[in-house]
Every structure is written in C-alpha cells, then in structure tokens.
Amino acid sequence: MLKNRAMVYVVSVMALSMLYSTVYFFISLKEMSEICLLNVQTPAGEMCVINFALVFMSIYMFMPLITAVVLQKLIYKEKLSDIGFRFKWSYWILAALFIPIAASYGSMLPALFIPGVVFTPDMSGMIERFAGTMQPEQIELMKEQTKDLGAAFFAVGILQMIVAALTINALFALGEEAGWRGFFLKNLEKYGFYKKSFIVGAVWGVWHFPIIIQGHNYPQNPEIGVVMMIIFCIFYSPFFTYIVEKTGSVFYAAFMHGAINASAGAGIMFLSGGNDLMVGATGAAGFIVLLAGNAALALYDKYIAKEKVIFRSGV
How many domains does the chain have? Predict the structure, then answer.
C-alpha cells in the first residue's frame, strides 16, 4: 500500500481534511462568517475584515501541505526539494500571474451572450449581486471606491491582484499546492501530461466539497456547485502542471493559485444578471475561456516551445 504514494496521499489528505471538516456538523460556514474577529474603522463606518469562517477555511488550505510534508519527511524520509520545494526566478512568473487574471476578465465576453446578462461599467451589477452577502458598510465602501477612482479602478484592481497573488494569497495557496502540484503530481509521473493533470484536478475539486456544499463560490446552487468546482479544477489543472514542469517549483503554482483567488471576482465585476453557474470564472462562461486557454497552451507547446512538456512523452 505504501508503495503507491499517490494513493496514500489521496487517502491521507482526504481523511485529514474531512476530519477537520466535521466541525461543520456543529457550526456552519454561514454561522462562522457572522463571528467577527477583527473590525476596522472605514469612512463608511466600522467593518469586519476578518471573521471566523475566513480563518477556519484558511487553516483548511494547509491540509494538503501538512499531509505532503509528513509523508515526504517522516514516512518516506526524502527531501522536500524532491517535491518542488525550491525556487529560482523565472519569466514563467508572468504566466502564473496573468493567465488567471486574463481568464477571469475574459469570462465576461462569453457571459454577455447569456440572456439577461448586461455590461455595467459602473459596477452596479456586482454591488447588487453582493448586497445580500456583504455588510452594509462594505457595500458603501465599495460604492465610494468605484466613484472616487473611476476608470483608474480597473488598473488599481489589477495591481492589487498581483500584489495579493505574490504575498498573502501565495502563502495560503502554498498550503494546497505543496500537496497537489508537489507530492501528488510528482508521484503521478508515469502518466501522460493530461492524464496526470486531470487526476490531480479531480481530486483537488472533490477536496472542496465541504465548503462548496455550504454555498461557497456557488451560493445560489451549492449542490450543482460541487460538480462545477470539480470541472473548474480539472480545466485549470493543465496550466498548473505546465508551469510546475517548466520551473520545477511548487512556488509558481502557489503564485498562480494566489492569482486565481485574487481575481475571482473580476469576471462579474462589470456584469449584471446571470447566476453563479453561468457567469464568472467558476461558471460556464469561465469554462469556455479555460477550454480555449487549454487549446492555446497545447498549440504553444507543439509549435512554439523549445522544450516540450505536453508533447514530450505523450499526452
């Protein structure tokens, strides 16, 4: 059993993660979100910036890393560098940052072909969409920021996404990527590019079940959202595999994951209408963009890349 490291990892990380998630039987994610841990004063009034749900989910993100480190160091007694814990600057950092940002904003284009979805440059659609889930103070602050910055809001937003992706988001994303694109991917080397990418993506997607079923990402359709998240993770997985194989580092996967989380709302920022299954980066519109991106990645590898990844040893 221990010889099949990939299977050992899946069983271990799922067991640890589901054990941690048993807390939800006693207090739901929604109830956690109502427990404020840190308030700050803003021009619009006092606002909660850190709630219990955020902290609880942030800890959950480290379950893949904890599992990977325990297996790699304590069970198999091997170096962490063997599963991508090494870093050297590479221009692939640009791809790690801008692929997710471009995909999120790009999802607006196919979304506009959905009946009832309209372009709202004043961001009124997004403000209306979050009115039921955000505090009144947060809504007012958002309105003030969009009004004060005007057209500059777009540029400032991208800058904020990049900074977040490289710092705080990357830190927590490493908690996942050390497992998914570190230990797990490393132990699927016998498979071709797409097969191992889809295996990692499927497990990664299923791992989100405890929070998705409670309405995270898909508050309007949590049950279908579980399936949508699995599809989303499978479609995104080849990009992660490609960058990790190009750089040999899970840190670049963490930057990409950080950028995905930082730009998550970009796809609905200027849209009104539609539901969470159709619009946004994690909706059907986002899936169309990811499919197109995967096709572009394959063409790049086949016809442009000097060192092949996808077509090196079979797809």
Answer: 1
